[in-house]
Amino acid sequence: MEFEPCVEVGSYFGSGKECEDEDKVASGGSISNRGIHGPMDRFMVKGNASGDETTTIISPQNAKELRKQVCLDIRRFFYENAIPFNVARSPSFVSILRLVGAYGRGFKYPSMYKLRTWILKEEFKTTEGFVNEIKSTWPLTGVSIMFDGWQDVRHRSLINFLVNNPSGKIFLKCVDASEHVKDAKLLFQLLDEVVEEVGEELVVQVITNNASNYRATGWTNSSYASKAYGKEVRKIILKDNNFWPCLIYGIKNTKPLVEVLRLVDADKEPAMDFLYNAMDEVKQKIAKNLGGEEKDYKEIWEIIDDKWDFQMHRHLHAAAYYLNPCCHYSPDFSTHPEIKLGLFHCLDKLIPNRDDMEKADL
């Protein structure tokens, strides 16, 4: 016997009548729900002499009982459908409860038919819009192709392909690679097809797991693999134990500096009044990235100070920092003497008259 689960307040499975009634309303018919109430409605409405319903004032005691009943219904929904508890943290779950509550009594939940027809199509359009928005940024940043192998319950060797850039990660496809997974050449052909699908000119790097067959897929059918310098590069990347630690060390040092360069190069707002503070923050971030021990970051700080003091730093930077409200009224505002000195130097150029200078010095 087949039946469609229909959930009303205080009940868990019905005969299907409610779902049929919903379709009747959608097709232009009319039905009456007078007298059809859940057990919680006694806290919400009462009838008057004319048979109309008027809203009652919910007492704190009744509100507590009402909330308890709602929680119990939600509990049963989770348990009966084996839904993981962490789904309760999902923003969409929170949104469902908020919007249904805002709609109020009389909300007709969508039937299984509607969930798998026009609602599904709407969700597809929404998801497609998100994906296209991310894809539009690919030519600006390039992309990383990520793929990883796994086995399903039927012991098939599957590979997930994903495309990632700073705007987001997109699941591209899952491929049954049972006939390819142990053969580096066949894996390369499969990967090459994915690169062509995404756009060869957009792919910056390919990221795989560390299995030997996946590693072999990289330097295969490459003209550099047979040349002396190609073999040397492969030897460094795969066998030199110092290569990756040095690379990580370089990233920890340069990432904060790149963030400042992006700040300076941005068109959204002038960077002059943030630059002085940004350079101080760079040094602190580098020190933290390297563990906080002075011996580890001292040399880097000296290089930064040398470039900043003798090539980049000007009095205007200090004056802009002083006059920037975001910085001036921050708890971390620096009181270093060079900041006021920079301000006075700038005022001296702008206000050559000494009497006016004294008025300007607040």
Features:
362 residues; alpha+beta; 3 domains; four-stranded mixed beta sheet; two-stranded antiparallel sheet; 16 helices; 6 strands; 10% strand; flat
In short:
The protein is an alpha+beta fold. Helix content is 54%, strand content 10%.
Secondary structure layout plus pairing:
Blueprint: H1 17-26, E1 45-47, E2 53-55, H2 60-80, H3 91-103, H4 112-115, H5 118-135, H6 138-141, E3 143-151, E4 157-165, E5 168-176, H7 184-198, E6 203-207, H8 212-217, H9 228-239, H10 243-265, H11 272-289, H12 294-312, H13 315-323, H14 325-328, H15 337-350, H16 354-360
Structural overview:
The protein is an alpha+beta fold and 362 residues long. It has three domains: 17-116, no CATH class; 142-230; 244-360, no CATH class. Helix content is 54%, strand content 10%. The chain contains 16 helices and six strands. The chain has helices at residues 17-26, 60-80, 91-103, 112-115, 118-135, 138-141, 184-198, 212-217, 228-239, 243-265, 272-289, 294-312, 315-323, 325-328, 337-350, 354-360, and strands at residues 45-47, 53-55, 143-151, 157-165, 168-176, 203-207. The chain has a four-stranded mixed beta sheet with strand order 5-4-3-6. Strands 1-2 form a two-stranded antiparallel ribbon. The protein is flat. The chain starts with 16 loop residues before the first helix and ends with a helix. Mean pLDDT is 78; it is low at 1-43 and 45-51.
